[in-house]
Fold each of these.
Amino acid sequence: MSNDDTVCAISTPKGSGAIAIVRISGTSVKSIIKKFLNRSKISERRIYTGFFKYNDNIIDKVNYVYFKGPRSYTGEDLLEIYCHGSISVQNKLLDILVSNGINIANPGEFTLRAILNNKMTLIEGEAINQLINNRSEKLITKLNEHINGGFSQKIENIREGLVEVKALVEAGIDFSDNDEISDELLLKSKNNLRNINIQIKKLINSFDIGKMLLDGYHIAIIGKPNVGKSSLLNIILRKERAIVTEYAGTTRDVLKEEVNIEGYDAFLYDTAGLHKTEDFIEKLGIEKVKELLKDADCVIFMFDLSTPLEKGELKLLRSLQRGKKDLFLFLNKKDIKRFDYSELENYALKYIYYGSVKKNIGIDKLFKGIALVLNEKMADQGIMLFSKRQKALLTKANRTLKEIEKCDIIKETEIAAFLLNDLMEFLDQLIGKSKKIDIKDYIFKNFCIGK
Ligand SMILES: Nc1nc2c(ncn2[C@@H]2O[C@H](COP(=O)(O)OP(=O)(O)OP(=O)(O)O)[C@@H](O)[C@H]2O)c(=O)[nH]1
Ligand SMILES: [Mg+2]
């Protein structure tokens, strides 16, 4: 792609709205302003009002702002036209631009240009896309740390540390006859590398939580038939989403609904009651629950205080305790409690709640408990990783660091220098500085058109 190409796109969501934004970036921006907005002189970053005209026909009365390159999002001349958000106006504007030789932008193309023009790093570009798609209020600050360069700066700092180590390694060659200086250099380099690896490992470890929070926290509601699973889903959604009856085995399929838990994006799954059954459809439903349990991040295990605690329930509880998922027990139907469940106290459970879905008792506490666990996961994270690409590169960096640690950087100088170069290359790829990668491969995937 030539960077001189001018491109355009509708940057607002598809469909009609009060206002839509058409963005145009590239060398032809000024001639577009002259031709369609009839203005030959224009100041940057000022709002103008005028008619967008084509062959003397008024298409729309619009506002527009001109951003002169390089002081624009893309680093090129950029025009934003705020038109009325009718689908016909938006399409007409775009059609006119295209018929005048302006290309439609690819998804993420404005951001790609911004990176190529050094307006931002690849990490910052990826984070903008993540922020656009993110549904958790709690992640806004974390993603902004990436967008505003906090993460890129951290990588730059690590890189600078490596340059220092490389200089020490090279100095080691000159001082290799002097044992005292060599030892001192060796120790200093080793300390620097250890410190760098701690930072890299911390970033890698934050990915599991970062990814989970960005993709949404998946909560499976499970339990034997009739414990009140569907009732719990309905009360949280404040609507009759799932059928609730007094008959055991009402729910056969898995129902998935998105919910917001104190600013976290989450998905609730209502499931078929778990028990031994000969019913073919129920069996299929139970198989689906087992599949779901492999992928869920969290389990709400429900019990029914009006029926006796069963061995099968205890067996499932033990297996869930052996797993890694967040586990919450909800002992339902407290209003008609008939059996003693104190045996569960032997299980050292951290999150166990007694309540009644029917009477709306204990549900608030249960979800506050879930929010607390999520808050704990977020706490002390510092900068978090949200992208598989970034994790893969840092994992390579970590592996290379381990190799460097194994070699004697004074005696095996050449190997050490070679590995250090590899390591710096991984960091360059991470921020998009490396010549060995094509940034297009990363930006276009999953990106919105118009960004
Ligand atoms: N008394 C009382 N009844 C409840 C409570 N919660 C749910 N129920 C009743 O228990 C019955 C079963 O509720 P569901 O929500 O359908 O239970 P379920 O776990 O989804 O059942 P299956 O889909 O068959 O596995 C219904 O009659 C509900 O009204 C409660 O807290 N107290
Ligand atoms: Mg149900």
Note: The radius of gyration is 29 Å.
Amino acid sequence: MRNFCVARNKKYMQALTNRAKPVDRRPMTLLERAYLPAIFKGMSITFGHMFKKAPTISYPEKTRPFSPVFRGLQILNRDEQGRENCTACGLCAVACPAEAITMEAAERKAGEENLYREEKYAARFEINMLRCIFCGLCEEACPKDAIYLSETFAPANFQRKGFIYGKDDLLIPNPVTEPEAYAKAKGNRAAVKS
Ligand code: SF4
Ligand code: SF4
């Protein structure tokens, strides 16, 4: 049995190490010495690529279409009257595997019914984008359709604190006062969801 294994190993070792390729040392023909066929072949490949559709895109002027399941920057949603949907229940923070969400709840006061849909709202809502892995679990956990992941990237920043997104950064524009900005922020992804 041992002899069989040794013989088999020798065979494999030979197969692995014996990779030498014999060099073709035939003298070049006149055509080959002129290099013209090789030059024309190379130029034909170059010109062929000139008339092909470029695979690159001029970002950010042009962007690729997103996948229907793309998950980007979070957005805090409002209802059709422009009131904040979030009730600061904390379910998104509990569901978040990266512990990226923090918030502070507050009671809605009389006269604030046009600002907050429910009696409780998030006075402070923060997402640490350096922690977020864009898994979408916060969106799935939310019972109020108050948070969803949009088709927008979290932009680059030079400072760590620039990646802590507060309510000002996350809240969708008001659909009553800023309908165009609202529609743009809502995007196609939200349309699929609703
Ligand atoms: S997308 Fe995932 S990681 Fe990011 S805040 Fe939501 S639950 Fe947390
Ligand atoms: S976003 Fe949704 S889950 Fe998170 S605190 Fe607000 S209502 Fe609750």
Note: Residues 86-92, 103, 122, 141-142, 144, 146-147 surround iron/sulfur cluster (ligand 2) (CB under 6 Å).
